[in-house]
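Can you give me the bound-state structure? Components:
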Amino acid sequence: MSLPDLVLKILLDAFWSGIAAVGFAVLFNVPRNLLVGCLLTGALGHAARALLMNFGLSIEWGTLIGATIVGICAKWLANRTNSPSAIFGIAGGIPMVPGVFAYRAMISVLSIATATDPDISMTLLVEASTNAIKTALILAAIAIGIAAPTLLFQRPKPVA
Amino acid sequence: MASRPLDTIEQVDLIERRRHYGKTSEDVPSVKPPLSYEELRDVIDLSLMAGQLLLQHGADTQKVEETIHRLGTDLGCDWLDILVSPNAIIITATSGAEFRTKVRRVSSLGVNMSIVTEVIRLRRRVTKGEVDRHELRVELKRIAATHSHYNRWVVVFMVGLACAAFSRLFGAEWPSFFVTFFASAAAMFVRQELNRRRFNLFLVIIVTAFVAGIVASIAPRFQIDSQPTLALASAVLLLVPGVPLINAAEDMIKGHFVTGVVRGITGGITALCIALGLLLAMALMGVRGL
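Here's the bound-state model for the whole set.
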């Protein structure tokens, strides 16, 4: 993929994931003046992940790095706007949440019940566990990334 | 002089507890005037109210604990022992030799970031000493009574747009984009109506996923573009329990396993309900291959 194509692809990714983040922020009743921050973290995190995946990184590692960027931005925005960083962290994490993996896993599990051929059951079982493991790993990556600034820099100090 | 040994025991106890929780010494100034039994009741009630608001509206467990602890100590307690469980908060507040305990039942009311923001800001103002106990009670009651400040049609439109944006991220073409938009917007409307009538949480999810599935099935049914099943996959994303799932993972990272596991299972059952509704719609519309 040539460079202008890549830039366009990442910019489009940022645009649509920003819209998705704002849409969910409205659903979660985020105050109006903080919506811009949600747009920023949502776009930045998902676009960073798309860029890294474009260079061949797996979705799990890409999510971890994207979510870390979201976590750092969330802390910065929270300090600027005097609001909890969880707002920007969650809004930025939402576009990366593996929703499709999650319910695909469940659809496969449910389909096992009605499958007649053992071979098909086997395929469904493998599909279900693959999707479930991907869901769990991506979720863990999002949470670790968002919490990274806290985990690294806000450790409890020992009492003298 | 009779109370002397008791004071010493309390003091040692306090130092031990600080060590145990790894709190900084700034959290607990060593000398504080002891609160009366009535004042203690007020403080514990207010901290519990703030904690309840946070837990009900989607804050993570660490935030709930920290806020309760800071609020209680800023209002004059020496120490608060807090137990946050998924559906209740238990607090013991200590001041001098006195202590009181209170339990409050908490039920999840859905994510509301405005309430979380306002409670956190209020806590910061209490720390600065700008708000006293009476003002705090008035403010907390006001926050608890606030409703969503977005018009319900704005929410329907934005949620539809968000799911349609997801379909573009997955690589859908424009016809599927618009089908997704209408399917999710219709589903969001149904969800609002059912929630207002206080139907069972999981029933609402199944029915909403079913509605989204029926409308989105138009795309694969009439083969409106080259990847019509993407509309079906994106239209139900409004139901994905993103906040409980992220909070579940974050709780577990920070060592709050009970709330983490419960939130994770809630998220899993929600995903199962989405799959049920979607499968039902696909079977009815005769659509295969998601």
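A couple of observations. Chain A touches chain B through 55 residues (CB under 8 Å). Residues 3-97+142-153 of chain A form one domain.
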